[in-house]
Amino acid sequence: MTKVTMTVNGKAVSKEVSGNTLMTEFLRDELRLTGTHVGCDTSQCGACVIHVNGQGIKACSMFAVEASGADVTTIEGMANADGSLSVLQQAFQDHHGLQCGFCTPGMVMTAAKLLEENPAPTEHEVRDYLEGNICRCTGYHNIVKAIMAASGQDVSGIAAE
Amino acid sequence: MYSFDIETPKTVADAVAALGKEEAQPLGGGQTLIPSLKARLAMPSVLVSLAQIDEIKGITEDAGVLTIGGGTTHGEVARGAASYPALAALAGNIGDPAVRNRGTIGGSIANNDPAACYPAAALASRATIVTNTREIAIDDYFQGMFTTALEETEIVTAVKLPIPEKAAYMKFEQPASRFALVGVFVAKYADGVRVAVTGASEEGVFRWADAEAALSGDFSASALDGLSVPADGMITDLHGSGAYRAHLVAVLAKRAVAAAA
Question: Where does the 2Fe-2S ferredoxin-type domain lie (chain A) (predicted)?
């Protein structure tokens, strides 16, 4: 067992973990932060995307000890301080950017990084950036629409394809 | 997952010492190895994470040679290798944004996946693989799929790439894995052209000598007219036959030359 200490959603946490503990397991089982979902568990689907030191990564493919000392943000850390939904989260609700909701945490975490890097992405840029996030409901259209709306762009002209 | 220990050395020397343990294996960004561990395709008893070794990270340029630390992520190469645009573009198209934030050039080069992108860039760019013990010329480095000249306790500390006059990489992507179904990297130097192919051969990445000879005389897509690689020895799987892959090699080589010219 190894002691790991990191900051998760602004709070310092410290736990004893075994070497093979994945970040998904650390967050979900040790910290009970179950918003980070496990879809494929092989770094394909993106349901487990979190931010580690400001970078989007797939938590299923990183060990907890590798995040020792890191600043981690999960979907639970994305709402506003008063608990209300962030602009991006609210846009997902307003534009029906989720169906079953399983992929949504990863979609939101990935989209948040996209909008940091590119504040007004085109539809093509959004779809390209979401390459590693899979929606089994195939609800991509409204996800793209929600992300573009969250960036402040007019999406009224975007019709379903 | 099965039980193993993981160590997180801060220096190459400590990493090499840790790799001396029985059944130890280096862990780069983990984007291939961690899924492999879950499938028990690899079962080391000790993993030595290279992610916290600062001395093998970063990109420098000197006298037309780009030196990229083995622990540099694909995302960092995509953003930081502006003096070699074809390489930056290749790095920016590996996997997806989250994978690019973890996966490293050293990990890719050491793993030598037959469908990975970096081996094509390294082979076409006359790279030198720098390890903790020696420098290996790229033509001596790749030894068939998933096989390299690296010894058990050898770590790729850097990859040196002479920047070509012109270069481009064309990847026909396998949409599920985002690896190359076939990828062709073309690099033109003052004294000749190199063409490296990934994704296609059962022997892993290879140089297409006929195309190199034709392009060294005339660096244009039409110089490749009539040239083809044999389908024998090409990978056949549910994504494409050997004949299809052989056809793609010629098509993508032309496109790469057109993009580079």
Answer: 2-78
Residue B123 contacts residue B138 (beta carbons within 8 Å): yes
Best residue in A5, A41, A43 for a mutation probing chain B (most B CBs within 10 Å): A43
Residue at which a domain ends, from B110, B133, B162: B162
Q: Same domain for B65 and B158?
A: yes
Q: Are residues B150 and B170 in the same domain?
A: no
pLDDT of residue A39: 96
Cα–Cα nearest to B172, from B158, B184, B163, B187: B184
Specify the pLDDT at position B44: 93
Euclidean distance between CA atoms B64 and B208, whole angstroms: 25
Provide the 10 A C-beta neighbour count for residue B55. 14
Same domain, yes or no: B136 and B184? no
CATH number at residue A53: 3.10.20.30
Asked if B96 lies within 8 A of A131 by C-beta distance, the reply is yes
Rounded mean pLDDT, A117-135: 96
Residue B212: partners with Cβ closer than 8 Å, 6 or more residues away: B192, B193, B194, B195
Does residue B245 surpass a pLDDT of 90? yes
B-chain CB neighbours of A63 within 8 Å are 6, 30, 34, 47, 49
Q: State how far Cα B72 lies from the chain centre.
A: 13
Q: Give me the domain span that covers residue A134.
A: 87-150
- What is the C-alpha separation between B241 and B250, in angstroms, rounded? 15
- B178 contacts in A (CB within 8 Å)? 131-132
Q: Is A20's CB within 8 Å of B97's CB?
A: no
Q: Considering CB atoms only, which of B1, B6, B35 is closest to A65?
A: B6
Residue recorded with tokens 């779809």: A127
Last residue of a domain, which of A53, A76, A99?
Answer: A76
Q: How many Å apart are CA B123 and CA B215, to the nearest integer?
A: 16
Distance CA A70, CA A66 (A): 9
Candidate from A19, A42, A46 with C-beta closest to B98: A46
Measured CA angle at B174 (ends B168, B176), to 5 deg = 135
Q: In the predicted model, what is the mean pLDDT of residues A27-49? A: 96
